[in-house]
Amino acid sequence: MPRVSFEHITKTYGHLTVLNDLNLAVDDGDFLVLLGPSGCGKTTLLNLLAGLLDVTDGRIVIGERDVTDLDPKDRGLAMVFQSYALYPTKTVRGNLRFGLVSSGLPRGEIDKRVDWAAKLLQIEPLLDRKPAQLSGGQRQRVAIGRALVKNVGVFLFDEPLSNLDAKLRTEMRLEIKNLHTNLRHTIVYVTHDQIEAMTMATKIAVMNGGVIQQFGTPDEIYETPANLFVAGFIGSPAMNLKRGTLAVSGDKRAVIVGQTRLDVSDYRFAQPPQDGAEVIVGLRPEHFLPPGTTPADAAGQFTVPVRYAERTGPDASAFFEFDGALLALRVEPSLAARLKPGETVTVAFPRGRANLFDARTGQRM
Predict the structure, then answer these.
(1) How confident is the model at residue 6 (pLDDT cuts 50, 70, 90)?
(2) Residue pLDDT, tens place only, 68-83
(3) β pairing state of 203-208 and 211-216
(4) Angle at 283 between CA 282 and CA 287, to 5 degrees
């Protein structure tokens, strides 16, 4: 499958710069997710790749071809839209065949591709129905099938699951991931949903303000966020971000947060830490030890009053008052049911799990 490269891409609308000198490479067979909030530039970047928008500056390369100025039909791409974009007067078979017929392929080849895609997506019983007779999940399968029959190397997905209910989104995530595993096509997928990104991607590009904030595997993005934006955007509940002061004495390093001292001697600093530096410490809710657990090797512990707890079936989160803000912990549902607002508990944080960011720049230390 071809490699996709964005080289010094700039996109402007008059005086508004949406993307500025963006560089990104998608390796052969990768499942890249462009992830970020609304207005971050991810859909613009996808549309530039598809040829639906013109590049202001820079170039786009697919394989060995510079496709920056090519028409969409000549780029070797297939796109699945958020709105399905099916022809309402045509059957499922007609929708799958339409693009192939207009390209002049022989009838036998067209039928072969349609049958293959229908079997792969398990929509064979639906071939004679029209879109109005299909559920949302079935329509999305047809939209994906219409892309598959084109037999191209790169597939583009523009928030394809946003119109589905929660159960169907879960099912379709699995189906799209299985398609990638079986076919190994290069996929560029746009979403604002971090669950979609974390469960399907081989690589994620987190975007904000038209800038790629971090590029890496889902584990890299989650475990070692590059800056405060990524740290706060990825994770539910979000990472706890607390301002503190770094205390350095020989090989001993700690962060003073309110009245709590967190030992970070085992943290791998990119640059030698400076005593007295202002930092933001990031603590994932699920990394905290259960309330009442205070092992001797904990990095530090917090004595905090309970604000409230939330149960969502098999998961639960508890929220505590700390240093004028909330401190979120992921806890066992049975424990959440026993926590009473106003009561004070002690929670500990383990060594080796803290994330540290420069308070001035917001970058990972």
Answers:
(1) very high
(2) 999 998 998 999 988 8
(3) antiparallel
(4) 155
Query: Cis bond leading into 290, ω under 30°?
Result: no
Q: Estimate the crossing angle of helix 107-121 against helix 136-148, to 10 degrees.
A: 140
Q: What is the C-alpha R_g of the chain?
A: 25
Beta carbons of 282 and 222 less than 8 angstroms apart: no
Dist. CA 168–CA 98, nearest whole Å:
26
Distances from the Cα of 113 to the Cα of 102, 124, 144, 309, angstroms: 15, 13, 13, 53
Q: Which residues have C-beta within 8 Å of that of residue 111, sequence separation ≥ 6?
A: none
How do beta strands 186-191 and 31-35 pair?
parallel
> What is the SS3 assignment for 167?
helix
12, two tokens? 């402007």
pLDDT at 166: 81
Q: What dihedral do alpha carbons 175, 176, 181, 183 form, nearest 10°?
A: 110
- Residue 116: strand, helix, or coil: helix
- CA dist., res. 283 & res. 238, Å (int): 9
* Cβ atoms of 251 and 281 closer than 8 Å: no
Mean pLDDT of 11-38: 94
DSSP SS3 for 352: coil
DSSP state of 227: B
Res 312: pLDDT: 85
Q: Are strands 211-216 and 240-249 parallel, antiparallel or unpaired?
A: unpaired
Give φ, ψ of 101 to 5 degrees.
-65, -45
Q: pLDDT (tens digit, 9 = 90+) per residue, 166-194?
A: 888 888 888 889 889 888 889 999 999 99
Pairing of strands 240-249, 278-283: antiparallel
DSSP string, 66-115: E-TTS-GGGS-EEEE-TT----TTS-HHHHHHHHHHHTT--HHHHHHHHH
